[in-house]
């Protein structure tokens, strides 16, 4: 019974994360300002990372956890660089 509940919960989480990715992609493409687009991209990489984590839990393979870690680090660095660019007009001082 608990394995079935876990499988259904992971599947439901994956569906909801897919919907969240669609909403974030809409915000990233149609955002009225650059700040909205950056937040949309931030939410998009975060939902993608979580989708990889849930898929890793579902399959039991560790490669998905490593890929999620790489996406998290690169997404954070990209968000910081874009925010710094919007604040100062340059990334490297």
From TrEMBL:
Compartments (UniProt record): Cell membrane
Chain coiled-coil ranges: none
Alphabetic keyword roster: Antiport, Cell membrane, Ion transport, Membrane, Transmembrane, Transmembrane helix, Transport
Alphabetical list of Pfam families matching this protein: MrpF_PhaF
Record keyword Ion transport present: yes
Sequence intervals crossing the membrane: 6-26, 38-57, 63-87
Topology versus the membrane: Multi-pass membrane protein
Record carries keyword Transmembrane: yes
GO MF terms, alphabetically ordered: sodium:proton antiporter activity
GO cellular component: plasma membrane
Family as reported in the entry's similarity comment: Belongs to the CPA3 antiporters (TC 2.A.63) subunit F family.
Designated name of the protein: Na(+) H(+) antiporter subunit F
Organism: Sphingobium indicum BiD32
């Amino acid at each position: 019974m608990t394995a079935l509940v876990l499988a259904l919960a992971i599947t439901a989480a994956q569906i909801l994360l897919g919907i969240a990715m669609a909403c974030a992609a809409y915000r990233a493409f149609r955002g009225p300002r650059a700040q909205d687009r950056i937040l949309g991209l931030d939410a998009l990489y975060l939902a993608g990372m979580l989708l990889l984590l849930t898929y890793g839990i579902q399959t039991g393979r560790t490669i998905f956890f490593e890929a999620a870690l790489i996406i998290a680090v690169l997404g954070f660095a990209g968000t910081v660089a874009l925010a710094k660019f919007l604040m100062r007009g340059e990334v490297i001082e």
